[in-house]
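Researcher: We plan to redesign the surface later, but first we want a full-length starting point. Tokens attached.
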């Protein structure tokens, strides 16, 4: 499965430079540190480093250091002997032993404790380790690839990460570009994820995305990077009902709702107090008479449509959905207020 994922998709200069750099580093049998924002594909780059290396026939073993409790991670990495601690009824092989002759990928290595970091350093330096509860030294031949979204030099300066381990891991550092820096790759990735999701749903065809949907995705900042893009694409297809029609409705934030709880939503109004706050229009209406009601309502409507368009990056279909209107109702309203041409 991982062999199929070793060649990610893209054609932007930043992506092609990353691929070329990874291919060069893969051949050098030294530790590597992969750095990038969440969702940028650090595990895929680690897999590429392994499968393009002389170790490609050996095991590729993974461990997320942030997903294991601190009191268990040492046993996960180095294994343990029977009776080493309460509940250790039999010998367990650790990830370093499993990866012997291959590569060990340590995701979120910045979350490992200083004590565990010291033992990782020893394996990298000398190729030696002991299982928990054993005094017998074992030889292992493992290439370590660490990954993090933290600033490890800053962590080392703050003494939250061992500087000597950082020195060893940073033989070479691969820094992944965020999706917003990979200009032109979003449509390619959206098409790839879209076809895969359509196939999973049993669609006989996939007509892709409408031009305005692709434009809005291309302009989005993608704080969650590729992982977020995949979720957005799969969500759009899962909600689509006509495979033969290009998809237009894109929901970037699944929490976007007029009923979304706020930080103070658990503070209920006092008994007898009105449950609904005055509308923004009511707060801005002047108490001075005479009042031109129609002009006030028109101004409020125009401001509402302007704010909604801005919030939805001027994507008309997304704005219509946000306001609970049909696409044609929204366009008529925008024309009425002079916000688009007739």
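Model: Full-length starting sequence:
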């Amino acid at each position: 499965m991982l062999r199929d994922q070793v060649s990610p998709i893209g054609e932007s200069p930043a992506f092609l430079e990353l691929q070329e750099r990874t291919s060069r580093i893969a051949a050098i049998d030294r530790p590597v540190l992969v750095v990038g924002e969440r969702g940028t594909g650090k595990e895929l780059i680690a897999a590429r480093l392994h499968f393009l290396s002389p170790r490609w026939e050996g095991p590729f073993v993974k461990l997320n250091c942030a997903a294991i409790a601190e009191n268990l991670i040492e046993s996960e990495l180095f294994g343990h002997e029977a009776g080493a601690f309460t509940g250790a009824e039999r010998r367990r092989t650790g990830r370093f032993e499993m990866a012997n002759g291959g590569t060990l990928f340590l995701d979120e290595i910045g979350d490992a404790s200083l004590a565990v970091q010291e033992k990782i350093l020893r394996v990298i330096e000398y190729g030696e380790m002991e299982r928990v509860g054993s005094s017998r030294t074992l030889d292992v031949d493992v290439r370590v690839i660490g990954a993090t979204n933290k600033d490890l030099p800053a962590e080392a300066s703050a003494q939250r990460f061992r500087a000597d381990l950082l020195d060893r891991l940073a033989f070479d550092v691969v820094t992944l570009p965020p999706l917003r820096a990979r200009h032109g790759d979003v449509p390619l990735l959206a098409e790839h994820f879209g076809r895969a999701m359509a196939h999973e749903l049993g669609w006989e065809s996939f007509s892709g995305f409408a031009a305005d949907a692709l434009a809005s995705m291309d302009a989005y900042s993608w704080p969650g990077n590729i992982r977020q893009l995949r979720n957005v694409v799969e969500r759009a297809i899962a909600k689509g009902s006509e495979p033969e029609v290009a998809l237009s409705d894109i929901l970037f934030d699944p929490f976007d709702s007029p009923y979304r709880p706020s930080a103070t939503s658990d503070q209920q109004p006092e008994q007898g107090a009105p449950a609904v706050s005055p509308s923004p229009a009511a707060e801005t209406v002047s108490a001075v008479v005479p009042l031109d009601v129609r002009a006030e309502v028109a101004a409020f409507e125009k401001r509402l449509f302007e704010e909604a368009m801005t919030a939805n990056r001027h994507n008309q279909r997304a704005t219509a959905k946000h306001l609970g209107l049909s696409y044609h109702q929204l366009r008529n309203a925008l024309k009425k207020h002079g916000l688009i041409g007739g």
